[in-house]
Design brief:
InterPro entries: Cellulose/chitin-bd_N. Pfam families: LPMO_10 (PF03067). The structure is a single chain. This protein is mostly beta strands and about 325 residues long. It folds into two domains: about 1-215, no CATH class; about 215-314, no CATH class. It is about 10% helix and about 25% strand. The chain has three helices and 13 strands, in the order βββαββββββββαβαβ. The strands form four sheets. The protein has a four-stranded mixed sheet with strand order 1-9-6-3. A four-stranded mixed sheet has the order 4-5-2-10, with no helix packed on it. Strands 11-12-13 form a three-stranded antiparallel sheet. The chain is globular, with a radius of gyration of 19 Å. The relative contact order is 0.17.
């Protein structure tokens, strides 16, 4: 609404925001436990370069029943480890591992970690009259959140104000509960402008982590498909066929995060082939882009029919 987004990327004027307390994706899962002052590694996936920058902010919220405020997040911008800089500027599409410095004086049983991407590809004029690409005061903005906990050196965090109902990030279209490191992604709102395949399977970079209180359960959907097949997931129960739930399940189940559970998602291995068409036809990198973007839900890319074409062998 009026160019505004919800604190975690939902519609600003939504009566109930899906990714904030009280929303459908507030599952109560703390994605990762850390210790105060720790350097953590987060991974982002940029599917279309909009010449922008990433910022990461954190709020020691400790109350999963109440939505976090942007004012709290703005008070705690995370620096890139070893620097005083809190902006990260990616040069092209692809995966990026970013080291962030957690505050030395922050502990929490529920911290909200916000990922914030501001694009820089909108033409406009700055207050001094200088006009250029990226000078516009209003740029595209993409936001996502994850719930984490930060312990003292002795493994003690303050109590929450009620039972945890944390909010896993969703795709904007993407989001994700942090696994070994919080994983987020910029939404595919445009055809790729640079070349980098974006297969949804991040590599495991070494990372230091705090004491973990979670363990795998039989409730998780752990599934890998043979070469040539694509993992396609759907919602369960009343949300079977819901495109938003399909995108959520495809993101989380392909990454095998804790949010991919049998209560939420059902997955199969399907033979789906997506290829670039038109001016992109014959480009392997654009074929990879189509395969990733178009298999996010069962509609198979209605927004990119001029760039991609998919076939499904039943």
């Amino acid at each position: 609404m009026d160019g505004k987004c919800g604190t975690c990327g939902d519609a600003y004027d939504a009566e109930v925001r899906d990714n904030e307390a009280g929303g459908i994706y507030a599952t109560g899962v703390i994605g990762r436990n850390y210790t105060r002052g720790q350097v953590i590694t987060v991974q982002i996936r940029l599917t279309a370069s909009h010449l922008g920058n990433f910022q990461f902010k954190i709020c020691p919220h400790n109350n999963p029943k109440v939505p976090v405020t942007q004012e709290c997040l703005n008070q705690h911008k995370l620096n890139l480890a070893g620097t005083d800089e809190h902006h990260f500027y990616p040069k092209e599409t692809g995966y990026y591992d970013i080291d962030l410095q957690l505050p030395l004086d922050m502990v929490c049983s529920q911290c909200i970690l916000q990922w914030h991407y501001t694009a820089g590809n909108t033409w406009g004029c700055a207050p001094d009259g200088d006009c250029c690409l990226g000078c516009a005061s209003k740029q595209e903005t993409f936001i996502n959140c994850a719930d984490i906990a930060i312990f003292d050196d002795g493994g003690v965090a303050p109590p929450t104000s009620g039972p945890s109902t944390g909010n896993p990030p969703t795709q904007a279209p993407t989001t994700a509960q942090p696994t070994e490191r919080p994983t987020t992604q910029a939404p595919p709102t445009a055809a790729p402008t640079t070349h980098s395949p974006t297969t949804q399977s991040p590599t495991d970079a070494p990372t230091t982590q705090g004491p973990s209180t979670q363990s795998p359960t039989d409730d998780c959907v752990l599934m890998e498909c043979p070469v040539g097949l694509t993992l396609m997931c759907d919602g369960t129960g009343d949300l079977a066929g819901d495109l938003t739930r399909q995108r959520f399940c495809n993101d989380h189940c392909r990454l095998q995060t804790a949010s991919c559970t049998t209560q939420l998602c059902s997955c199969t291995c399907n033979k789906i082939t997506c290829k670039a068409v038109g001016g992109y036809e014959g480009s392997p990198t654009h074929d990879d882009w189509c395969q990733t973007i178009c298999t996010q839900d069962s509609n198979l890319c209605p927004d990119h029919r001029d760039q991609c074409q998919c076939t499904e062998d039943l």
